[in-house]
Structure prediction request, 345 residues.
Amino acid sequence: MNPATAESPFIRACRRRPVPHTPVWYMRQAGRSLPEYRAVRADVPMLAACATPDLIVEITMQPVRRYGVDAAIFFSDIVVPLKAIGVDLDIKPGVGPVVAAPIRDEAGLAALRPLEADDVPYVTEAVGALAKELGPTPLIGFAGAPFTLASYLIEGGPSKNHDRTKAMMYGEPARWHALMDRLADITLAFLRVQVQAGASAVQLFDSWVGAVGAEDYREFVMPHSSRIFAGLADLDVPRIHFGVGTGELLGLLGEAGADVVGVDWRIPLDEAARRVGPGRALQGNLDPAILLAPWEVAERRALDVLARGRAAEGHIFNLGHGVLPSTDSGQLARLTDLVHRSTTS
Ligand code: CP3
Prediction:
């Protein structure tokens, strides 16, 4: 990592070192809330954009230019590595990932071959260009965690209750673990490609893992996510782990091997700090819907997040989930300034 990036507030906070101001970035900071995003995406399907280096670079830079956030997040999607190894899937606007032939048996499993760097040349190219263009500003690489990817693959699309996913997990544990193993290999390879091309931190999104309880997390999920974090240790970049509705899992998300635990809006950060324990930083956790209220309301709640974040050994300000598409970009600009003006002592 270049020395100026290593000393940036974002990387310092991830490593629980003192910072001049609380660093801030937003999940889904590049996306439909930005008019400049809607303009460049107008005629380009999502997965086509994710495979076009110039577009990846432009879209990744948009929120950095507009808000001056402390980190960029690589523009891609959690299903990009699956598409790259030949899984027939698409991202439907307003719906999410849809898989043509859901994976529920041995033949489906066999189709999930390992990912090689050559499968995603556009990722290597775009990350390299971004690392140059961003200068000292860190680039966060990311991937979907095995449970969340398994849910899309088994259900065939977004799911509320993850029934079929859990049916395989409980009813066919050997097949479940074989699937999770393959997904962990693919995810680890995808993250390593990004870091080796110049990403200076990674976030593993286990967005839907809040659907399982702690005991099941330990048995059916954690071994696979842990293997991914362990497989990144030699690269020496901060590892962030995030999921939605994971209040009861926060300690385990850290134990899986994360340096930073992402927290959704349901648990105050001081309570999250108790649950996660020492030795890890926290990221979060303003309710994204707060930004749809008048600024004075959002401001009060953001100051509360900052105050509670002081209970953590390091705090990266973020929302508790992604920016909602209807968010006014003026709100995010004011929020970014507010966080930057805050002092951390
Ligand atoms: O955060 C960023 O700015 C980086 C970009 C990013 C996208 N997807 C771009 C995207 C990231 C980090 C993701 C991760 C992702 N994708 C997750 C984990 C994060 C989370 O939100 O929990 C998940 C579960 C997915 C699957 C997915 N892809 C969903 C649920 C959707 C939304 C569908 C919709 O239209 O509402 C997508 C599509 C998607 N990925 C969009 C963006 C900007 C919207 C597509 C568009 O603009 O046309």
Q: What stands out?
A: The longest strand covers residues 139-144.
